[in-house]
Amino acid sequence: MAFSKNTRTQTLETLKHTDLDLLIVGGGITGAGVAIQAAASGVKTGLIEMQDFAEGTSSRSTKLVHGGIRYLKTFDVGVVSDTVKERAVVQGIAPHIPRPFPMLMPIYDEPGSTFDMFSVKIAMNLYDQLADVEGSQYANYTVTRDEVLQREPHLEKTGLQGGGVYLDYVNNDARLVIENIKEADELGASVASHVQATGVIYNDAGQVAGLHVKDLLTDEEFDIHAKLVINTTGPWSDKFKALDNKGSQAPTLRPTKGVHLVVDGSRLPVPQPTYLDTGLNDGRMFFVVPREGKTYFGTTDTDYTGDYEHPRVEQEDLDYLLKVINTRYPEAHITIDDIQASWAGLRPLIANNSSSDYNGGGADKGKVSDESFDALIKTVDAYEDKTATRQDVERAISKLETAHAEAAGPTASQVSRGSSLHQAPDGMITLSGGKITDYRKMAAGALALIRRLLAEKFHVETKDIDSKTLQVSGGHFDPTNVYDTISFYTRIAMDAGLPEEDAKDLANRFGSNTSRVVTYVQDGAAPGLSLKETISLRYSINEEMTLNPVDYLLRRTNAILFHAETLPALKQPVIDEMARLLDWDADEKASEMSRLDAAIAESELTYLKQADTPAAIR
């Protein structure tokens, strides 16, 4: 189905002249999740995004569907239970995107360690029970110090005790967003990027009745009318609320910035995602993840008050991550000159959570009594000896959670859930906070409120759906048979004339849409591009609302992040083909090249590499 610059024109006409049931503001993962569910429910839905889809937070994560095992350090069982269950749901509705990839957690005997070898095994056993992977190929296990070093010989050896291995998932965050957006469009939602909300429309009763907006591609301003409006703008939530002069202006978010750095895999070889304490005794953990021949590591976690539209890596971010990576991998000697790419993004943390998704910190979340802890351990041991049932373990966990909640106070539950759904007195709905892993569940909660309000206040009846089985674009196949299905689509692409590796890459990226992608082979390869790159680009322009080369090379693909060495030869042919398809003149081509060059330079940290860098860093 076409979803392109051409269809955008018709979508804008629809938005201008339709009384929507629901208008969603924000095209990141949260808004995309609400859009697909609302459209499937028969809600007359519109969505606007002022940038490209996923251009902000939702393309700048650690690119994992992470289970949050570190929360078990403080027995925050609720968040882990929710997360691991949702992780399986996301894999079911987008089976071509998240992929299981066991995580290694090296354990060090040092002050401030998150786990020791005893507690990590207890945590992993609980984690497996919550994830329902006991006895499967993904069940956890521990490894000795020597086995850890066999896997990662560059790791710091001093104090290394061993490690744990448990299930986690790698993810392509921007692809997850665009596949939700495409499916929402397919289901009838009116979706447009580069449309900015500039004001709120109220009815005679003072209730929100739509938005005044501006098309940033043409500068045209117009109104969109809707019975309900929901703010899903992520870190922008408080800034968007400022448009609603009848609502509360009290800030609800505490955005923090997370930074990741990419090096060639030969400079930092790791066989699997690795999650470990920083070694700086700062209470933080960080990830080291192999991907597409590269290795990336992060993340920082610092409060942010700068430009929300354009967060970037600063010198202090670089200094911190280089110190961390060289502390834990002292034989690697990573310097700024090794950095091939980077990204910086904002996390929309709820202001009173006092904690981030990855790094913890903040207020004390409460202690668990020795009696409660011992009771849980005994129950887990009995379960493993088959003298206790799963229900016994769940009861022990429940008692533990009760004790923890009493000690931690009301903030603990907010930290655990990490998201907020609120309706202001004037009717404006705000869905904020949360994590990519939780997006489907957050959207389901919002949709329940939306459907109730539509029925009670506007007499609009909608249908109930099971969002746990609502598959996204590209994900329409059996999630229990991913390997064989991807092999099937690989063969389809090979039959269309692509080499096996290129065919496999397309099948993994596009899933069940691979059959659509290969229809673009009929015009042959574009000058300077492989057949794979050509048909991927043509499909992306015609069916993924790709409007410029940065959309394509950064978010529809990962070329800027994980294939920087290909960009010098790739960028001009990509722009030439886009110019042909989108009818750009010479000035537009030059402008797009400047935009692309700026994005590449920022990713490669050119502005820091050219600056005077302390010798210790270089």
From TrEMBL:
Which molecular function GO terms apply here?
Answer: glycerol-3-phosphate dehydrogenase (quinone) activity; glycerol-3-phosphate oxidase activity
Q: What is its EC number?
A: 1.1.3.21
Catalyzed chemical reaction(s):
sn-glycerol 3-phosphate + O2 = dihydroxyacetone phosphate + H2O2
Record has Phosphoprotein as a keyword: no
Asked if the record carries the keyword Flavoprotein, the reply is: yes
Q: Which intervals hold domain FAD dependent oxidoreductase?
A: 21-352
All copies of the Alpha-glycerophosphate oxidase C-terminal domain together span: 468-589
Question: EC class of this enzyme?
Answer: oxidoreductase
Pfam families hit by this protein? DAO (PF01266), DAO_C (PF16901)
Q: Name one GO biological process term.
A: glycerol metabolic process
User: Which key words are in the record?
Assistant: FAD, Flavoprotein, Glycerol metabolism, Oxidoreductase
Write down the InterPro entries for this protein, in alphabetical order.
DAO_C, DAO_C_sf, FAD-dep_OxRdtase, FAD/NAD-bd_sf, G3P_DH_FAD-dep
Its needed co-factors are:
FAD
Similarity section: Belongs to the FAD-dependent glycerol-3-phosphate dehydrogenase family.
Descriptive protein name: Alpha-glycerophosphate oxidase
What organism is recorded for this protein?
A: Schleiferilactobacillus perolens DSM 12744
